[in-house]
Amino acid sequence: MRLSLIMFLTLGICLASFAQPALKSDTVVTTTHQLRANGQSIAYKAFAGMQPVWDDSGKEVASLHYTYYEKQGVENKEDRPLVISFNGGPGSGSVWMHIAYTGPALLNIDDEGYPVQPYGIKENPYSILDVADIVYIDPVNTGFSRILSDDVNKSMFFGVNADIKYLANWISTFVTRNNRWNSPKYLIGESYGTTRVSGLALELQNSQWMYLNGVVLVSPTDLGITRDRTVSAANRLPYFTATAYYHNKLAPELQNRQLEDLLEEAEEFTINKLLPAIAKGHHIGPEEKAYIIKEMSRYTSLSEIVIAQNNLDISTSLFWKELKREDGYTVGRLDSRYLGVDVRDAGERPDYNAELTSWLHSFTPAINYYYRNVLDFKTDVRYNMFGPVHPWDGSNNRTGYNLRQAMAANPFLNVMVQSGYFDGATDYFNAKYNLWHMDPSGKLAPRMSFKAYKSGHMMYLRKEDLIQANEDIRQFILSTIPEDGQPAKY
Fold first, then answer.
1. Which of 60, 289, 387, 480 is most buried as measured by Cβ atoms within 10 A of its Cβ?
2. Which residues form the signal peptide (predicted)?
3. Which pLDDT belongs to residue 77?
4. Can you tell me the distance from the alpha carbon of 71 to that of 45, in angstroms, rounded to the nearest whole number?
5. What is the CATH architecture of 22-225+360-479?
């Protein structure tokens, strides 16, 4: 740990020593484009710009980069939904969903999401631009967004609640500048972005008096919803089952079933058998323990010896290393369809994240090309795929409960979750657990929906899921716009 810390600090010093030119804090470049999406020909404008962040005294302290797509020829703009999009990290730019999911441009990858050359950008015929305008926002120190002065107190940006507070102010200014107050509004966040937008739903209501129609959570984090060690250990199993199934590691009687049917069975085992067994600790009887170990082995393909040695608590890192150890491969963290090759087969965790290296391989050249050559946004400032935002204050994270409170206070607010079965970082079963415990009474359940896909964290990289996931968002938007004159009341 000491060596890792030294390396991290050394890297930070090295990065800081390479000063970069500053962008103007308040500027925009406008370009016009044409797209055919969802069977429609769409003329749109793209606004690639910078908008300031002000402190409480009105001083500019940072500037956020954004890309705003607005369909042209819309007669009544107030009927046109606006989608406000964030990625996660924290510390990640909005690049991922921007050029691989909902936006009008699509990076050049194969149908399963792997890099191909030549790198490039093409039209996205599945974009949701047919039903909504979209703005992609890079929080401070991600993308082209930067703090404007070394003497700015970084704690106003780098923390769960600080992040939510300054972004709510920024969104309010953006909505005002672009005359979108009357538009139905939606937040979409991926990974840590789900923590961000869950908190923003309530913050926008309480501090900006801005009410939303929907929040889309793509591969959600735990949203501050408590899980003790027992729950955390048990909840991993359905993801293990899904990944073992993908890699054809299960026994034939399980492997020959439909994935969704098998996972339903694994979930029932997790809740009704595994969770109580882990909770018993050494108080569990030998017969019950032997049964649980055997069933865990059956659902994961891991050996009974490995499961027993780990007291029924298999970490995700061990699973990524163990599942295909005999084949000489590791599996990816964020998407366990991806394979890695370690320097040695022994050990308890992979040497690197196989999926992330693949994604950076394809996304980095694409986004840099796209801004300069398509959106005409030219700068010598580096686009931070991942930027320096640490130390990050993760305390007092109540974002999941805040989202429930926002829903309770706003009868128009709906939530949709999208998860990939093979995501081992923010797994699909824990995403379901969020919904169950965010609203334990079930009174808000009719306004919550869950969608799952046969891919990983960024499910949209697989073409089949790109098509379906965009259609799910499209239908979510269309179904959550109230009828004219419909009152917001219970």
1. 387
2. 1-19
3. 86
4. 6
5. 3-Layer(aba) Sandwich (3.40)
pTM of the model: 0.94
Token pair for 80: 């046109």
**Domain residues of the chain, as ranges?**
22-225+360-479, 229-354
Residue 14 neighbours by CB distance under 10 Å = 9
- Nearest alpha carbon to residue 105 among 133, 124, 119: 124
Task: Work out the number of other CB atoms within 10 angstroms of the CB of residue 231.
Answer: 16
Tokens of 322: 């163990």
**Model pLDDT for residues 232-278, shown as the tens digit of each residue:** 999 999 999 999 999 999 999 999 999 999 999 999 999 999 999 99
The alpha carbon dihedral of 13, 15, 17, 19 has a sign of: negative
* pLDDT tens digits, one per residue of 335-381: 999 999 999 999 999 999 999 999 999 999 999 999 999 999 999 99
